Amino acid sequence: MFFPYTSGRKGMLGSEKEVGRVAQTVVVGVTGGIGAYKACELVRLLSRRGFRVKVVMTDAAMRFVTPLTFRTLTGEPVASSLWEEPAYGGVRHVSLAQEADVMVVAPCTANVIAKLAHGRADDMLTTTALAAQAPLVIAPAMNAEMWRKQVTRDNVAALRARGAVIVEPEAGELACGDVGEGRLAPVEDIADAVEAEACRARDLAGVRVLVTAGGTREAIDPVRFIGNRSSGKTGYAIAEEAARRGASVTLVAAPTCLADPYGAEVVRVTSALEMRDAVRAGFDRADLVVMAAAVADFRPEGPAEHKLKKDAGAPALALVRNPDILAELGERKDGRLLVGFAAETRDVLESARAKLEAKHLDLVVANDVGAPGRGFDADINRVTFVTAEGAEELPVLGKDAIARKLLDRIAEMLARRGQR
Ligand SMILES: Cc1cc2nc3c(=O)[nH]c(=O)nc-3n(C[C@H](O)[C@H](O)[C@H](O)COP(=O)(O)O)c2cc1C
Predict the structure, then answer these.
(1) 86 is a domain residue
(2) Residues 32 and 173 in one domain
(3) 112 lines ligand 1 (CB under 6 A)
(4) How many domains does the chain have?
(5) Ligand 1 center to residue 156 CA distance, Å?
(6) Is the CB of 296 under 6 A from ligand 1?
């Protein structure tokens, strides 16, 4: 029988889970659709599968089903108002968000889909969802016309691109009398999706991961540098997702504007040489290395000690090669899993395959950074995973979703090697 265990990395309420193996917590959000009564069955099913279930409801949901029903089914207080006095100290929506190993919204109205897609947080359910780090499963249910509307499709696509799991509604007779697509998926399917996310939440437990991110800066003088357009978003997303899935993560970060990823140790560097030192220092302790940073191939030969004055005319910059950190790691990988990135503007796949072989890598994430609006400095990208077995082309996805897919693939590779 499946018995879910806690991730044990939650904040305020983590300690009670760390003392032993305790059921994982699923926060079930119920919204104001006619299918709200089916959430009662979902809650029962999740409880039967060994989860601790907590329910949060919108005002509209309480017009369809009462909190009393869920309180009785779960044995837990039901959250519905941001303003009610919490049963214990603290801020309820934050503590609920931290407790969640998985959050599922079922049924999810068109309205809540729109709010989640735009980061709105004007009630207990949407505020909890925004504060949660946990994977989000959404089971939409609505009238067929509402489901077909372009705006709803766009909102669902935006949520999916950010990593939410959508359990698609099915076709059939709807409560409004119409026949069409929009009926809540079977509760068993929703529970299966929750369970899959709960398993994924721990699939990298114990794995020591070293991730690099950002673009290095190579000094010309004390104020100027040669840089590149890397935002660091992909590497940060990988570090955060790996930590969320239980890995112990060190992120070696070249300058970015991003907030530290939750749960990762961050080592800041500026230049390629500093990055090499930091990566070497962490390499021996790592089981998996993901080199997502854009490391400069060249640096100015001798950076000026003082700021160069424009009156002296344009300086001639002599450049020297930086060390190839990834190739150096490939030479002494000794059983570690090594993942590189190939950012190219042409012959992307050929370059990725050549890199895979030449640097003894296990996987190369190839991406065409020449395409406008994606890749460098964007929130979306289109990548291909290249391994010795072949190439897997992904659709255009948000960088969070790419991080998740990459770690799914890596978890599979580790499992095959017997390291998981
Ligand atoms: C009888 C009835 C059934 C409804 N069913 C649905 C539904 O299945 N899906 C949906 O998106 N909206 C449905 N609505 C509309 C929502 O209740 C309405 O958009 C509400 O503002 C949703 O609030 P919430 O998203 O905060 O829960 C229904 C309304 C009524 C009166």
Answers:
(1) yes
(2) yes
(3) yes
(4) 2
(5) 17
(6) no
- Is 34 touching ligand 1 by the criterion CB < 6 Å? yes
User: In terms of domains, do 46 and 189 share one?
Assistant: yes
**Is the same domain home to 41 and 190?**
yes
- Ligand 1 center from residue 71 Cα (angstroms): 22
State the 10-residue block means of pLDDT for the chain, 420 residues long. 34 34 87 97 97 97 97 95 73 86 97 98 96 94 95 94 89 78 95 91 90 97 94 94 91 94 92 98 96 96 92 92 96 94 87 95 89 70 94 90 93 84
Whether residue 249 is found in the same domain as residue 366: yes
Q: 261, 239 in Cβ contact below 8 A?
A: yes
Task: State if residue 111 touches ligand 1 by the CB under 6 angstroms criterion.
Answer: yes
In a domain, 8, yes or no: no
- pLDDT, residue 16, reads 35
> Which residue numbers are catalytic?
176
Nearest CA to ligand 1 atom 29: 33
Q: Ligand 1 center to residue 61 CA distance, Å?
A: 8
Q: How far is the CA of 259 from the centre of ligand 1 (A)?
A: 37
**How far from each other are the two terminal CA atoms of the chain, in whole angstroms?**
20
> If you take atom 18 of ligand 1, which residue's CA is the nearest one?
32
Domain with 362, as residue range(s), is 208-416
